[in-house]
Design goal:
Elements: H1 2-25, H2 28-44, H3 48-60, H4 65-81, H5 85-103, H6 106-122, H7 126-135, H8 148-160, H9 165-173, H10 176-182, H11 188-196, H12 200-215, H13 224-240, E1 245-247, H14 248-255, H15 259-271, E2 277-280, E3 285-288, H16 293-330
Antiparallel strand pairs: 1-3, 2-3
Organism: Camelina sativa (False flax)
Protein name: 26S proteasome non-ATPase regulatory subunit 6 homolog
Keywords: Coiled coil, Proteasome
Length: about 325
């Protein structure tokens, strides 16, 4: 520890000398670069408070809006490392305002999408995270926070629990950028494709392997139990869409688990409102009571049409009344 502290002190002394030299002999841009170098060193040794202080000092010497956005990205890296999501949220809002001021090119905009997607994933907003990640697949350049393989890992995980089967096939399974990386990540290909192909036993088997990776992930491990529940809900929902009723035994066999496990798991998910089904314990069957998506869309459109007709009828009634009243006045 003493040797590390001494090395840090020596390096910081050199950086201070560069700042002093720049202020005495060089221009404003060189002064800014010297202060930025010191801020980056504090980030490197993970001295959060001093890094933020130095970044703020560097921002005061920065004129270009694009460079200010780069400073926000450095702040985001530090905030994500310490899981300071309040700072992450404020920094993302700040970056968006800078972009609106015309200081961001598309490369910075795409980087900001990845940072925001990571923030959404880390705060359980998986739907928005999946949307932002999918939009950034072909333009990913944010290697400073994680490699491309990790980005694809997050994209697939968030997409599975938020996209319907058709969208998942079009946007993820058939995406060439994802296909080039999918096989490099253990269990991910089996996890994704078995769900699409309705191979639920293989899906659960691959999910067990994926769970070990999620447990050790810096951003996903706090949501491990929540994500496990969401994935099981997706698998069960897709399976039950094909049946009005199905025996618990047949469902357990399809997923490669025991009857008791399916019975308990479905009971918890159904009671929590995650699954629209009920278990007939006496008959040993699961009954689905969720309306079909097309049926729900038809009902929604019908309600909208009825509301329009009611509004129109009230307008017509008022016009008829007004016309009758004018006729009465004339007579």
């Amino acid at each position: 520890m003493d040797s590390i502290r001494n090395a840090n002190e020596e390096e910081l002394k050199k950086l201070e000398e560069k700042i002093a030299d720049a202020e005495e002999n060089l221009g404003e841009s060189e002064v800014r670069e010297a202060h930025l170098a010191k801020a980056l060193y504090f980030i490197r040794i993970r001295d959060k408070e001093k890094a933020l202080e130095q970044l703020k000092l560097t921002e005061g010497k920065t004129v270009a809006v694009g460079q200010k956005m780069d400073l926000v990205f450095y702040t985001l890296q530090l905030a994500f490392f310490f899981m300071d999501f309040d700072l992450v949220s404020k920094s993302i809002d700040k970056a968006k305002k800078l972009f609106e001021e015309g200081g961001g090119d598309w490369e910075r905009k795409n980087r900001l999408n990845v940072y925001e997607g990571l923030y959404c994933m880390s705060t359980r907003n998986f739907k928005k995270a999946a949307t932002l990640f999918l939009d950034s697949i072909s333009t990913f350049t944010t290697y400073e926070i994680f490699p491309y393989e990790t980005f694809i890992f997050y994209t697939v995980l968030t997409s599975i629990v938020t996209l319907d089967r058709v969208s998942l096939k079009q946007m993820v399974v058939d995406a060439p950028e994802i296909l080039t990386v999918l096989g490099k990540i253990p269990f991910l290909s089996e996890f994704l494709n078995s769900l699409i192909e309705c191979q639920y036993k293989a899906f659960f088997s691959a999910f067990a392997g994926m769970a070990e990776q999620i447990k050790v992930d810096h951003y996903l491990y706090p949501h491990f139990r929540f994500y496990m529940r969401e994935v099981r809900t997706v698998g069960y929902s897709q399976f039950l869409e094909s049946y009005k009723t199905v025996t618990v035994e047949a469902m357990a066999k399809a997923f490669g688990v025991s009857v008791d496990f399916i019975d308990q798991d479905l009971s918890r998910l159904s009671a929590g409102g995650n699954l629209q089904c009920k278990i007939d314990k006496v008959a040993g069957v699961v009954e689905t009571n969720r309306p079909h998506a097309k049926y729900q869309a038809t009902i929604k459109q019908g309600d909208f049409l009825l509301n329009r007709i009611q509004k129109l009828s009230r307008v017509i009634d008022r016009e008829d009344f007004s016309r009758a009243f004018r006729d009465l006045e004339v007579s």
